[in-house]
Amino acid sequence: MLKGTLAAVAFLALMVFVLAELSSAQGAEYLVYFGTYTNGTSKGIYGYRFQPASGNLVPLGLVAASPNPSFLVAHPNGRWVYAANEQQSGTVSAFSVDRQTGKLTLLNTVDSRGSSPCHVSLDRTGRFLFVANYGSGSSATLPILADGRLGPVVGFAQHQGSSINPERQKGPHAHYIAVSPDNKVVVTADLGLDQVLEYRFDAAKGTITPNNPPFASLKPGSGPRHLAFHPNGKYVYVNGEMSSTLSSFSYDAATGVMKEMQTVSTLPAGFSQTTSTAEIQIDRAGRFVYVSNRGHDSIAIFGVDAAKGTVTPAGHASTNGKTPRYFTLDPTGNYLFAGNQNSDSVVVFKVDSKTGQLAPAKTLTDIPQPVSMVFVERTNP
Known about the structure:
Elements: H1 2-26, E1 30-36, E2 44-51, E3 56-65, E4 69-74, E5 80-85, E6 91-97, E7 104-111, E8 117-122, E9 128-133, E10 138-143, E11 155-158, E12 174-179, E13 185-190, E14 195-201, E15 208-217, E16 224-229, E17 235-240, E18 245-252, E19 257-265, E20 276-282, E21 288-294, E22 298-304, E23 311-318, E24 324-329, E25 335-340, E26 345-351, E27 358-364, E28 370-377
Antiparallel strand pairs: 1-2, 1-28, 2-3, 4-5, 5-6, 6-7, 8-9, 9-10, 10-11, 12-13, 13-14, 14-15, 16-17, 17-18, 18-19, 20-21, 21-22, 22-23, 24-25, 25-26, 26-27
């Protein structure tokens, strides 16, 4: 009885904190940065000013020229943004943020120690940056220096192996990397291996060493792409790019062990055209999971069972464009931004917090080949 009461009190405290955070976020103004592919008309990173209270968006145009800045991450201090430059000679760039004008200034560019880096993230202290090198199939850690610049790689793991698809899975292809909520385990989704690799993270040195066990497996041919931790830290959700699936795992924080509980399709019944998943997100309250479908060109919506961590399909929202490679929820959780890579558009949806459903609010058409986006709270002039 006491255990149940304490759990209820803890959950209530969490909800109070989330509501307070959302109230604060709604009154703020943000800079939104869009990473792109630069093999067409794009020149690098584009920006907007965004006011969640009104939904108003003001274009800033090109804020930094950069080669293929396909994935972005913002430092929690709001002063720096980092970009994975997805090229054969893999690099990561650091930028300083002018929070009044929105302009980005290049600080430095460093070797990612692999080819075609496609994902970056930060540890919970903001002292290290993680990078997933897709082309060469490796995970790396770089220190963030006092002035925001990046140092050379200090943690590294080369993935090994293959899986059943002869075209996509002849070797490892790291597609996502992030740290667990307690900052102790680094997880990397490797599309080529059908595995989520796990590493123990030394938060003092930035080094990574294989966990025991060193990975969690998905069904052969799934092609795990990205993943999301539930806010309570007990569950992990992984989208299979090649199989168009969403897999739910239990997660033991003490051991880092992931155990598959469920796998469901991200597509409506009867859909048989070529498609693949791209991004996965979970709302801050842990009630809904979203996955983007490229080909079906939609955001799949799933409700989360709070007691079990499993999911139930709750519909689809068309992205009104082609190839929704990435999407994200804004800091308030009231909006979802979806980038249509092959139709040069970003659709902004209003989120129904009770049902998780998405309603298109506006479309941005001046961002060529949008691939990712991040929010930075703006300093009022």
